Amino acid sequence: MANADAAKKAAGVRAVDFIENGMKVGLGTGSTAYWSIMEIGARVKQGLQVSAIATSIQSEELAREQHIPLITFSQFDYLDVDIDGADEVDGQLQLIKGGGGALLREKIIASASRRFVVVADEHKFVPQLGAFPLPVEVTPFGWEYTFRQLTAMSGRPKLRQKDGKTFITDNGNYIADCSFGAIKNPRSLEALLNAIPGVVENGLFVDRAHTLVLGYADGTTKVMNKI
Ligand SMILES: O=C(CO)[C@H](O)[C@H](O)COP(=O)(O)O
After folding, report:
1. Among 225, 227, 219, which Cα is nearest to 10's?
2. Which atom of ligand 1 is nearest to the CA of 124?
């Protein structure tokens, strides 16, 4: 296993220790959350009782394969724990997410969770957010106008492509990958972006994470809690 994968696996598996019997759980998206879903599946096989909701169609399919019982929003008021990855995380546990394009469902599920546990390899931990392009989910209707608003904010938006085609999110929207440079005030940028009418959501997760599990290439982990 490559070093980065070992670090992701270590973080993803360790975070599952925060899940107790009977809990309602949010399942994240991406290559680190993958390991959490696999570990939850393994513990379900050993008798752990949980019910879960996924942040993407991809993770939902993986959960089904692992025989993790799934629930919908009509079946719960809140989730006990959400475990999800991040593209960048700073010392205040502010995040950039959405590298996999699942940011809208990820933010809804993080918001519905009493505890949001972020899993990441050590390279995701940064002194300041902004080197990773900030994903912004926009409606197809009027996207060119929305992109002009993002350009006016110095966001330098790029329409995300996949396999030579425009990338479409699970919600039928586009992603603008933006470069704002170093993000000095994530809270205000998150609010400013969401004030643009064609923006559905953006990948800044401010004051949402409670716990960070960082994984290292040697298989060790470090847990940090929001103060
Ligand atoms: O936000 C996400 C998907 O929308 C992912 O959690 C984020 O991109 C991290 O992915 P990975 O664990 O594969 O590095």
Report:
1. 219
2. 14
Q: What is the ipTM of this complex?
A: 0.99
Q: Which domains does the chain have, with CATH numbers?
A: 3-125+206-218 (3.40.50.1360), 134-200 (3.30.70.260)
Pocket test of ligand 1: the residue of 29, 55, 95, 202 to mutate, having most ligand atoms within 8 Å of its CB, is 29
**Sequence-distant (≥ 6) Cβ neighbours of residue 152 within 8 angstroms:** none
Confidence of residue 221 (pLDDT cuts 50, 70, 90): very high
Q: What is the mean pLDDT of the chain?
A: 97
Whole-model pTM above 0.95?
A: yes
The alpha carbon of 77 and the centre of ligand 1 are apart by a number of angstroms equal to 25
User: What distances in angstroms separate CA 83 from CA 16, 67, 184, one per listed residue?
Assistant: 8, 18, 26
